[in-house]
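Example for tutorial group B:
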């Protein structure tokens, strides 16, 4: 055997494009706003997206996602700010002259045209030669695995097949960026999950940058290189799925992406990378790892994911966060169970426990007194 290195090298690929200083983004949005009367639909949004990303705009209904997408496509003009695609300013550039294509939520297929003619429509408009159209349409249909169905009409297709026709039509013009507005919303759950993987594998084959609008956090987490979370027209956080899940910066993001137990209270101390906070919901102060400079007395919250909490009968060791309580409710989900534990202060905390073994009974039941515990590394401090 060869000698083991003293420390394993970190398993890390080349820096991601958004981490490279000076990398030229394929899309740069700077200070873009759009108002409709009293409503500010998009509020001072700035964003860089890099070549080859599958980037998601994630937010609740009315958060401004579609409006932002329409401004990138040129269907809507910003009141302020600038959009640049591949280094070129898009101000004054009409939609048809922009190197982007939009796949609409409704698919907007022509019902009287065959699949082939739907897919080739944009190329015909461009005056592309016949044989090139035929070739590109065939390639696009093969890519979305509809090679056999080119002669059908949209109403002779399933919902999933129509979705793929719309995708082929958007890809056939080889845009620099493909804008997809809720591309999977019309599909049922199983098909949606399968299509998420298909979309990503198609993106990897064609290399076109995808910008996907969704309100579905699981979809965004599964598909994206990075996610921008939108709330009331603003982007509140941008990061990889792991970053936004494990390090939410605000209460909103912590609660929007997955579940989080939030403990409010003034900061008691912040030193040596550990923040301690006094919450009225627990008997003892809570700690979390955080290197920022918090002031004593400052309002903050600690967020803890349910799966980071251990449920046990015996008192945990000192030095970690521990809360005593009573099991009030159990949600058995099959693969895991969620325990709702009430503290003496009347606060309910959710803790998830994977059901690792086949068993006829759960290890805890309603009314059991239990200790919840988690380490400071497994909690984060969030601002307002
Ligand atoms: P999302 O796609 O995130 O659901 P939208 O971008 O469609 O959000 O809408 C953001 C806000 O702007 C909403 O309050 C919506 O009512 C408003 N809005 C969008 N389009 C128009 C419009 N054409 N006229 C008036 N208000 C609009
Ligand atoms: Mg929308």
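The residue assignment follows.
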């Amino acid at each position: 055997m060869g000698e083991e290195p003293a420390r394993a090298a970190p398993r890390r690929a080349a820096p991601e494009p958004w981490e490279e200083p000076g990398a030229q983004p394929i899309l740069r949005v700077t200070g873009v706003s759009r108002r409709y009367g009293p409503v500010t639909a998009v509020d001072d949004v700035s964003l860089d997206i890099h070549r080859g990303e599958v980037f998601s705009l994630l937010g609740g209904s009315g958060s401004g996602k579609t409006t932002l997408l329409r401004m990138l496509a040129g269907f809507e003009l910003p009141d302020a700010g600038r959009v640049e695609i591949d280094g070129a300013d898009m101000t004054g550039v009409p939609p048809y002259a922009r190197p982007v294509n939009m796949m609409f939520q409704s698919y907007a297929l022509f019902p009287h045209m065959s699949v082939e003619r739907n897919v080739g429509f944009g190329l015909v408009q461009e005056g592309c030669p016949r044989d090139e159209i035929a070739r590109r349409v065939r390639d696009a249909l093969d890519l979305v695995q509809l090679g056999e169905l080119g002669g059908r009409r949209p109403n002779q297709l399933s919902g999933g097949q129509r979705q793929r026709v719309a995708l082929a039509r958007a890809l056939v013009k080889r845009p620099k960026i493909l804008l997809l507005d809720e591309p999977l919303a019309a599909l049922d759950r199983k098909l949606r999950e399968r299509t998420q993987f298909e979309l990503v594998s198609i993106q990897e084959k064609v290399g076109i940058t995808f910008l996907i609008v969704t309100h579905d956090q699981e979809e965004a987490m599964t598909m994206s290189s990075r996610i921008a979370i939108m709330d009331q027209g603003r982007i509140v956080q941008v990061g990889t799925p792991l970053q936004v899940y494990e390090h939410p910066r605000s209460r909103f993001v912590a609660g929007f992406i997955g579940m989080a137990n939030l403990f409010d209270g003034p900061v008691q101390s912040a030193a040596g990378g550990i923040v301690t906070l006094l919450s009225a919901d627990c008997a003892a102060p809570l700690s979390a790892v955080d290197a920022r400079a918090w002031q004593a007395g400052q309002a903050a919250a600690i967020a803890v994911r349910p799966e980071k909490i251990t449920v046990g009968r015996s008192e945990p060791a000192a030095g970690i966060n521990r809360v005593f309580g009573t099991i009030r409710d159990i949600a058995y989900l099959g693969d895991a169970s969620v325990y709702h534990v009430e503290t003496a202060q009347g606060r309910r905390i959710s803790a998830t426990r994977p059901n690792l073994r086949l068993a006829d009974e759960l290890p805890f039941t309603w009314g059991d007194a239990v200790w919840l515990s988690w380490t400071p590394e497994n909690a984060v401090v969030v601002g307002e």
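The domain at 17-99+175-251 is CATH 3.40.50.300 (Rossmann fold). Compare this with the pattern of hydrophobic and polar residues in the output above.
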